Amino acid sequence: MTAPRQPLLIAALSALVVALFLASLLIGPAGIGPGQSLAALLGRGDEMLTLVMRELRLPRAILGLLVGAALGMSGAVLQGFLRNPLAEPGLIGTSASAALGAVLAIQTGLSAAFPLGLPLAALAGAALSVLLVLALAGPRGGTLALILAGIAISALAGAGTSLVLNLSPNPFAANEIVFWMMGSLADRSMLHVGIAAPFMGLGFAALWPTRRALQALTLGEDAAASSGVHLGRLRLMLVAGIAALIGSATAVAGTVGFVGLVVPHVLRRAVGASPARLVPASALGGAATVLVADIAVRLIAPGRDLKLGVLTALVGAPFFLHLILKTRREGL
Amino acid sequence: MVGRLRLAACLLAGLALPGCLQPAAADPPRRVLSMNLCTDQLAMLLAAPGQLVSVSYLARDPAASTMAEEAARLPVNHGLVEEIFLARPDLVLAGGWTAPGAIRLLERLDVPVEVFPVETDIAGIRANIRRMGEVLDREPQAEALLARFDADLARLADAPPGPRPRAALYEVNGYSSGSATLAGQIVALAGFDNVADTLGLPAGGVLPLETLLLSDPDLLVEGHRYPGQARGQEVLDHPALKALTRDRPAEAMRDPEWICGNPFILRAVAQLRKARLALERAR
Amino acid sequence: MLELRALSLHRAGRPVLNGIDLRIGAGEFVGLLGPNGAGKTTLLRAALGLLPARGHSSLAALSVRERAHAAAYMPQGREIAWPMPVEALVALGRIAHPHSAGSTDRAAIERAIDALHLDPLRHRRATELSGGEQARTLIARALAQETPLLIADEPIAGLDPAAQIEVMRLFRQLAEQGHAVLASLHDLGLAARHCTRLVMLHQGKIAADGPPEAVLTAGNLGRVFGITAHLVQGPGGLMFQPLDTLRGGAL
Residue A303: its pLDDT value, please? Predict the structure, then answer.
């Protein structure tokens, strides 16, 4: 039976996320003791320490959690909907398009004039790319069409991002290409949490109820539609939810690849391959993964702002190769 | 004397620069082209009228150049070998950051190139001023400029002995610079200890915001904000940084005075010195 | 159970379905026959409201939710996207009943598992089963949906003879228990032997409709399939044997 294992899995993943969240709060270049750090977080002790804990470490840990959950959940939902284990916001170009939207908002001054301009523009970019992928390589499109569409959209959006940044009058803008392509949580503030959290909330709320439909889609669209799934409504929720999650995640943290690919893949067996159960498990797994990656970048290269995507790609790319080999072995 | 100075400049650069291996030209160069922001400014300070035929486009940018007005009267180049070659210069001035490929290509085309190393301290600035005087055949002008520079420097470097206030440089992308950099030298000349040195970043590097906050500097020197938008500039508006500067002084770097090693750095020294005097008065 | 009136569907200006009239009631196991491209799958999907069509379909007229209570559908190809355990796949039938109690769901799933003798397989991954076992799993899923009407698109394609006979017998049993079953079939022999009624589709129109012996006539077979065949009443039902293609026939 797989059913009783589900609460256990969720509990274990939640515990892991809580532990990593605390670890993220406690690890930083300043090397403050755990007791002192937590006291400072609660407003006791040195004023400057409190500032560090509340304005630097706390937003970073919160964003790591939210961004990871968004990436993991989006990956699980996309894979369930397209019935394709390679569907992932990074691979299908959603993150790259969101980055282009964000960069456009920053460079046109929209985000400075109107704080919600940044996440909204990223969201628009993400939504556009999801719609494009669904049109070019919907559930009947198959893996090849999906990957080709993803490559095309990623390349186009990446080129657009580089173009916009290179044309910027600001000499530092061009350096930002790395951030938008590799992602980072360094020096984020509560302002960023404030920008991203509401959209993330909407995104989680939109994707959570799709679980039943994703489960039904296991047997194909027709079988799902004839067992009461409203495919049109599902598609709308999916596009809106993924755009909100990936748009806001990318707007504050750049493109963090492979999380949405690897996490659902690792957890699939543990949830008995159920696409519905994979959704909460992947959200937690994604949060844990990004928190680990963000802790690792601080431990490996403190003070160098090693990009998050470097680590996730180092782990994720070999995984991708493994997936290809497995697919070939199975002759799919 | 001149030869020895040349040698000294070459040794300082630590490189077998092409100019070091050739004997000094008998005739002064008549069509000098500068392709680097820093050599642009030194050359404009020292060149005879009409001797300098082109400077880099950056020299016209008031956000980067102290001599934008002077540069506006000269034709500009973009550091592209083709345009430089077609301008038929008899001497090209390049800097330590100039693309090595462009320099090699110009040399293949038999265009003499003088590469000036990046100045990171007063000795480097003095050496480059002297060398610029030599290659332009304007040694008296160079000596006069040096004399003025030394006198101004002596007037500004008046920090009393004893414990010095601590300053932190914090620039775009969270970058900070220590004493092994020109910016660090400016801070030191103005009479400050540099937080970046105590934190192990003498040559500069990314200073995590939380480390900066906990280092508790007396003065924060913020990086220059460029027009247009960049994510890396956001960190200068981070709420935690704002909280730090709420009750302590902060100065903003005017970049033209901080980028190139030339006498204009003394304006930056003066700016920070004024901040130091204010701090001392407040004690 | 199912009523189609003048159902028509055009694709790229050409009629794929052309004025289909069909009424299926409880107790019937209807085999939908026709050569490739006759429009069988299109007819089933249009009847279910999965494809927009002109004319009337009693199912398509219902809301998505009501439709899921009226008919269960087994699409062609037996797609199973994820290696889920058999039991979890059967449980997918209950998605049509989001408001039913857990115990009701449980009972329906167990009934379906029993009916298809899937108990020994319930924890196995469905993607690792044989074609026949997968077919049984998907039928159990449809049964767990607890609808009066079952629609299956080529449910026995690609199965071995034993599995084919097993599935056909099961559909017949379901019909005898009061369900209505509509299945598109290519095996005319099995259709002749197990279906209570056959509907022959030809170029988007119903060419023949009635009991097997009335539909599988030499004239219909020649006109629709381009073959000659031998049909006799044997022990335990009709025996059908294709013999040859007609000149200028299907190929």
Answer: 66
